[in-house]
Write a structure and sequence with these properties.
The protein is an alpha+beta fold. It is built from 3 helices and 9 strands, in the order E-H-E-E-E-H-E-H-E-E-E-E. Helices cover about 20% and strands about 40% of the residues. The chain has a 9-stranded mixed β-sheet with strand order 6-7-8-5-1-4-3-2-9. It comes from Undibacterium terreum.
Amino acid sequence: MHLFSRQAMPVNRSMPDSQIIPELAYPDVAIAAEWLCRAFGFTERLRIANHRVQLTSEGGAIVVTEMPQDAQAGQAQFAAHSLMMRITEIDQHYDHARQCGALILRPPADQAYGERQYTARDIGGHCWTFSQTIKDVDPVDWGGLMVF
C-alpha cells in the first residue's frame, strides 16, 4: 500500500509549503526563533501567539515550539522534538497506521487553521503528526501573524 500521494499538496496559507516539517521544542520560543534565523539563516514565516513560530529555508520548514513545562525527565527527549508530515487521504493513513500498531495519541480532527490532523507515536517513541489540508485559511482568521 502506497500511503503518500504523488499529487501536489493543496495550498493552505496557514501551513509551510513542505511535506515533512520537524518540530523542535525550546524553553523560549521567541529567543530560539530569533537565534535560528540569525545563526542558521532561517526566515520567520508565521508567528502563532507566543508558543509556535514557523521558520523556512529554501524549500524546507521547521516549527519552533514551546517546551512542555511538565515534561518528565524520561519523556523530555520526545517532548523536545517531533515530526509533522503533510499527506493526502488522512483517514485511510490513520486506519492503516492504527492497524500496524502505531500508538494513537490524538485521533483525526479538523483544525481551525484548515488542516485535519492526527498524532501517533512510532515504535521508537517518536511523535508524528500527520496533516491533510482541507481548506486554505488565512492565519489572521485564527489568530496567527503572517510575518512575510
